[in-house]
Amino acid sequence: MSMKLQRLRIENFKLFRAPLEIDGLTDGLNLFAAPNESGKSTVAEAIRAAFFERHRSSAVEHLRPWGESSATPTVELDFELDGKPCRLTKAFLGKKRCELSIDGKAMDGAVAEDHLAALLGFKFPGKGASTPEHMGIPGLLWIRQGTSHDISSAVGFASDHLRNALGESLGELASSNGDAVLKAVESERNELLTPAAGTPRGAYADAIRLRDELDGELKRLRVDIEAYQSGVDRLSSLRRDHQRDEAARPWAALREQLAGAQQRLDEAKGLADRKAAQDAALRQATVQVNALRTQLQAMEREESTVVQREKNLLTVREGLAKALEELQAWEPRHAAAAQADSAAREALRLARQAAARTAQERAVEGLAEQLAALTQSHAKAKGEQDKVTRLQAEAQSLAVPDGELKRLQRCADTLRTAQAKLDTVATALEFDLLPGADVRVAGAAVSGSTRQTVIARTGIDIAGVGRITVLPGGADLEGLAIERDRARDELAERLQALRAESVAAVEERERLQASRKSEAAAAVAVLAALAPKGLSALAADIALREARLVEAREVLQAMPASTDAPATPIAQAESEEGAARAALSDASAALNDAKVAAGNAREQVNAAEAELAAVKATLSDPQRAGRKADAGAALTDALAQHSAIQDKVGELAQQLQTVNLPVLSQDVERLERSVKQAEAAHSQRANDITRLEVELQVKGAAGLEEAASEKQRELDHATRRCAEFERRSKALDHLLRLLREKRSALARRLRAPLQKHLDHYLQILFPGAQVEVGEDLSPGRITRQGLRGAQSGEFEELSVGAREQMGVVARLAYADLLKEARKPTLLILDDALVNTDEERLKQMKRVLYDAATRHQILVFSCHPEAWRDLGVVARSIP
Q1: What would the pLDDT profile of 538-549 be if each residue is shown by its tens digit?
Q2: How far apart are CA 597 and CA 162, in angstroms?
Q3: What's the predicted TM-score (pTM) here?
């Protein structure tokens, strides 16, 4: 059974809101190349949704265009199935429907969906959206974007269909007696060994565990026996050592050595303390010498600063004179700038005053104009209001009750119909009388040419002739007359109720009412434009504008009168005022800086004079010479004392060099530890002797040798049982391996058709390569030539790109197998080779071109330049 798509139309489907139609699909290769986000995968998803999703499913909200919560995703497919024309139409979520036509036979709803699933080899889920496990053959051959390298699960979901395509023999292999034997052997073997790793389990594992436990217990008993014998020897050694120490008492001699070392350490520490005291005295003497030297140096510096202070005084006096000259230069400039600023401010005031009066005059004029316009609008609005009232009243007076005109028209139609029927069956009288003829019909005079119909017995009187009686015929004449009279009476009653003469008058009355309503609406619109907030609000606005106008006129009258001299433009006045203000600010700043500089110079002169006077006063002090002489004598004494202390420190340092204080401290510490260790070892040995005596007494009463012999017998029995289990498990494992090898050989022969198709494509992609077909019919171990000779590995060990290529090749082989079994073989590749390099892609194009001679293939790609040599024209998504 072949399947070939011919046309696709989708609407309101994800990014396609407007209808999208693709037709003219060929039987072989169909290439769609377009950039990302252009809708290629959406088209592929629309094909999958049309077949795999129930039309009544509520789990397909993702099919709607984004932001279109009320849209109805629709897919329409024209295809050929085994040579028969088919059309499938599905609409989801909104107006749900499913319509299927196969060779003119129509089906719809779930019946159509189930029929199509049975034909194409897939199934629907119990509820919710369709998943890969339900997609069967199409799920295997229609490669979704990013899944071409993952083939095992897709093969598993289509395995039943593939096995059926291989024939009944493969199914019989799984249900044969040989498989029953294999399962029995496998079951017995798996009772003793794990299926995967072949490690012991069950009774075999229990036997091994018991053997290991007995072996461990026996080893522990033997360790206890050895420990008992070692303990007896150790107890003898401990008693001997304890008796020797009791006699020798080595810790007493160590204590005597400790006392001597402690005495030597104390003497050394006394010498170090004396040196530390002399070091402190030397530091004090050094500080005193430095202080006296600093005092004498300061006195010498005071004597040298008199000349420097006099030079500094002359310098600051010169600076004061210059600062006073600068201050005198800026005072007249500041006065001129202040006068110019005052004049500019007065000019600006006059300009603003003139501008304010001009603005107020314009405001008064504007308010007067607004008031006039509002008054005019109010008058017009009042007229429109009166017009609206009049028109609404006229429309109300012309009103016809709802539905009454239609009822009148129906009555008139009924009367006309009844009269027409009556005229048809009534007796007609036509007169063509000569002038002066005296003829009466039912007492009424008749003259000239006329026509009348009579429905009852009627007399015709002719003067000078006599009377003619007309008797009308017709079976329904009387009923028709009654019907006519009832219609006429009802029409007359309704016209009387409306005080109208005819139906046309009522129709004209209704037309006039509509006209008045329209005119009233137009007048309301004009009124709303003239007075948006109503007449009262407009009147209030007029009163407000009048009050503002009075207030503005009062403000204008209160303003100073304008002068005859032309006023300076306000912009010019503001510019001149700003320039004058800036000039005054600069002059004020400069004057202030000159004042500050003069003040600072005056302060510097005062400070210099004070400093010079202070130095001269200090040098002229009569006691200063005595203090300087005392400081010199004190320095001489301090230097002598410093030298004597320094000699003592050197002497003590030389004595300390002959004594090693750290070593003496270590001697005391070492001997103290030795005494404690000797005493502790003697005490610990006594404790060990007591503990060992108790332990050996307990172990001697436990019968360790007898327990060890009993454990040995139990261990020998457990070892023999483990050996029996080992022989049985190895035999079963070997038998199972032989049975599986035989079964695998048979399965390989049965899978030969699939192997043939795989080998066909593999030789195009990897010349000389071989691939094994696994038990689940998916590609297994692959052997091919590499740079280092033949290389072999499992399918899952290949790179992602190689698995992509093998995934496409395998699906093409499955399609060949299914085609031979008359199953549908449409293939869809949605960006299936994105990880394939340029050289491999060339080989894959050969593979696809070869497969397209037997199958229809739809290729979707975002790299049009990579497929230019495929042999078909690339189509874009409209």
Answers
A1: 888 888 888 888
A2: 109
A3: 0.40
